[in-house]
Amino acid sequence: MQLKPNAYRLNETVKGVETMTRFALAVLALASGVYTYLGVRGILDGSATFVFFAAIIYSAAVSVAIYAFWSFMLRFVPLVTSGVQRMALFATMAIGCAMIMAMSSWLNAAALAGSAATEQHMAVTLQGYAEDLDQAHANALASQSLLPDVQRAAERFTGLANDERESGALTGTTGSGSVVQLLTQMGTQMNQLATTITGSREEVALLFDQGSARLATMRELVSTPGAIEPRADSFQAEAVQLSAVIAALQQTGVAASVKRASADLSAGFIAPVADGGSADLANRQDRVMETVRASVAAQSAALTAAADEILATPAVEQRRYVPLSSAEAVLRYWQDFIPSWAGAISIDLLPVVLVLVLMIVNDAMRRDSESLEEAENITAAEMLRAMALYRQMEAAGIDVASGKPLAAPAAPEPAEAPPDVETAAEDATVTPIDAAQRKRTDGPRPA
Questions:
Q1: Is residue 389 assigned to a domain?
Q2: Residues 296-309: pLDDT tens digits?
């Protein structure tokens, strides 16, 4: 198996996934456009035809913009090597991501979680209405706490009138005189006030039942599955009716009436003229009526203070249900739908990962190709010629690294020839021929 450089394999791999990268980018842009269409359709007003075409045009523009932007980033960012230029591209990419989130991601989130966010808004509003109903009911029932005090005062005045009539417990003389009439009058006023307080209890209970029924209907509208628009409309109608019930509950409080009645007990106290037959009896009746006046004033002050304490309780502020579109609801309750926001943003910004991957791969290819730039472009014929030249240089005694000839070994000194050999050579009649000095290009020897 022939081994290839790593840079070559990375380059081939990048080319192999280029089609897949374009396909994935197109699918992501299309998905973002679809969800953008759903989000835009929920916030536009007008005829059905206008909403349809407006949403289609906007979503198509978003898809094209996303595909073009990320195509540019995938093409240019991996090729830029300068640090300043790459930082400039990163800043441009950050601006583009912010624009994509502004024009598409929040609409994608509205399409993914719009109905749930609207239900969340209805549920929060329902909880507020439930608290208002409970507070208004509590304020209305607070007036009922005055009933025992009023009943005790009425029983006290009535009891004193009976005792004075039967045994003369106050003046010492039995019979129905001016003291009995005054005590009976005070007891009657207290009984009337107690009747007023008791009568408001039934009205408060009736209004609270009506408000509870409205709340139950609103809970069903929040939890019932189905299209959110008709449920939101019905919820708003029920909220209006519930607001009217809460306002009526606040009007049923009798604390103000009790305060006015208790103030009238003291301010409007009219003592009858003593009708005793003797001066002594008349004098005793006057003293008893002064005592009754002081008692009525004390009772009036106590009831007024109790009524003021009830009236000091803050009244329930009028609540109004404000319907929200799915996009507005997603923006208001974004903390409750973080997974939906993450998915909507990931659809638009997932190509950032592809850009970074291609940038890292291209950097790796550049590093690997720096040391083998010429070796990657050599052909087989050039490689064979280079190997043959290498062998020739070794055979010729040339250092391949430096290109200089190697030093030749020192030749041994020739030994002296014996005298008889030299004489024989001189006497030789045959002259030797040096064939080694003849070149191949020389012509044939002359005869």
A1: no
A2: 777 778 777 877 77
